[in-house]
Automatic annotation (TrEMBL):
Residues passing through the membrane, by range: none
Source organism per UniProt: Mytilus galloprovincialis
Domain CUB: 274-388
InterPro entries reported for this sequence: CUB_dom (IPR000859), Sperma_CUB_dom_sf (IPR035914)
Protein name, per record: CUB domain-containing protein
Keywords: Disulfide bond, Repeat
Length: 389
């Protein structure tokens, strides 16, 4: 029932429209056409691309008018920002706000860099005051420049900013310009001392080993000392002798740590030289072969010289020589305050064993003379010395 009425209504409406249009078609067409023409429009079947469709002409024709919209300026503005004219900006783009364009398009430019707030975005950074942050994102191929003072600081300290410091220069840190380093002439130069040390077959090390001589060369930049090897190093292996046979008393000594099978004795050649000159602020030395037995017929001089104006403290950490049984001064150590003279002899020592005996000099020098006679080897002595201010 409802459908019938509804269809009837449509039929009635269509009928009335037909009557009006059919009855007044000429008048209406003229009116529309006049109205369209009054607006500089033309009634045609289809408007051209550069025309605007402003409505019907009461028939299948449309009223086409020249577009009133002109977006030439907007397009230039958009292009100046490397923007692009498109219906909708993409995810990584932002709407510049330029427009809208006649076709309702938007001007979309690449997303502004997230770091742009931090960066000073420029074509090139000022290498004196700025560092280029290569991770910084600036738009349009600009560089992300950040303030720094490394270059100025390097120059103020006498350095030069370069890509790589030379071998004899000290790398003291970065410069503002990316990947440049601040290179300075080292304040300390020990190449001469090193050459001198090497010429004496010495070695640069923090502390000289026992029986190594501190040559007094230096100090090195790293506070190391130049240590010379002992005057005599027994590099030979043992001359192993059967029990009951002793080391030849003139030119061999008994090495107590020697490696001979069973109870055989390890004999090694005697050093032809001994003693040494000790110029470091502190040091140590021993008698030849210590703690094995010293050789016979030796005279060794140990000369200690510390900084001018200071004094020497000497301590025998161990002492054991052949005792002077009959007043014949078999083996002895003489301690001199300064240079050797009868006036400066502080002590003549023999026997032992004892440890911790100490001597202080009145000047910056001290001299020791170790003597062994023709027979009877003992462990000898071990001593340390220090500088007293
Ligand atoms: Ca002796």
């Amino acid at each position: 029932m409802f459908l019938v009425e509804h269809n009837n209504t449509k039929m009635k409406f269509g009928f009335v429209f037909f009557i009006v249009c059919a009855g007044a078609v000429r008048i209406q067409q003229v009116e529309n056409t006049l109205q369209c023409k009054a607006g500089d429009g033309i009634c045609k079947q289809m408007c051209a691309v550069d025309e605007e469709d402003t409505g019907s002409c009461c028939n299948i024709n449309r009223c086409c008018q020249p577009r009133t919209c002109n977006d030439t300026i907007l397009y230039a503005q958009c292009k100046a920002r490397n923007g692009e004219n498109k219906p909708m900006c993409e995810v990584n783009e932002q709407d510049t706000g330029i427009g809208p364009f006649c076709n309702d398009n938007r001007c979309c430019e690449p997303t502004t860099c997230i770091d742009e707030i931090d960066c000073n975005c420029k074509v090139g950074c000022d290498s004196e005051k700025e560092r280029e942050d290569q991770n910084g994102l600036c738009c349009k191929s600009m560089k992300c420049c950040k303030t720094c003072n490394d270059t100025r600081q390097c120059k103020a300290e006498g350095g030069i900013c370069k890509q790589t410091c030379a071998v004899d220069e000290e790398d003291t840190g970065p410069c503002c310009r990316h990947s440049y380093r601040c290179c300075q002439t080292p304040t300390c130069n020990d190449s001469l001392q090193y050459a001198q040390c090497k010429a004496k077959h010495g070695e640069s090390k923090p502390v000289c080993n026992v029986n190594e001589q501190d040559t007094g060369i230096g100090p090195f930049c790293n506070e190391n000392r130049c240590c010379e090897p002992p005057t005599c190093i027994a590099k030979v292996d043992c001359n192993c002798k059967s029990p009951g046979f002793r080391c030849y008393k003139i030119n061999e000594y008994l090495d107590i740590a020697g490696n001979c099978s069973g109870s055989n004795t390890c004999c090694k050649p005697c050093c032809l030289t001994c003693g040494g000159t000790f110029n470091g602020p502190e040091g140590s030395f021993t008698s030849p072969n210590y703690p094995s037995y010293y050789c016979n017929n030796h005279i060794c001089r140990y000369t200690i010289k510390v900084e001018e104006g200071s004094k020497v403290m000497l301590n025998f950490t161990f002492f054991y020589l052949e005792p002077n049984m009959w007043g014949d001064f078999t083996d002895t150590v003489q301690v001199y305050d300064g240079e050797i003279s009868t006036a400066t002899l502080m002590a003549t020592l023999d026997g032992g064993p004892f440890e911790g005996l100490e001597f202080n000099s009145t000047s910056n020098k001290m001299t020791l003379i170790f003597k062994s006679d023709y027979i009877g080897g003992y462990p000898g002595l071990s001593a340390i010395y220090k500088t007293l201010k």
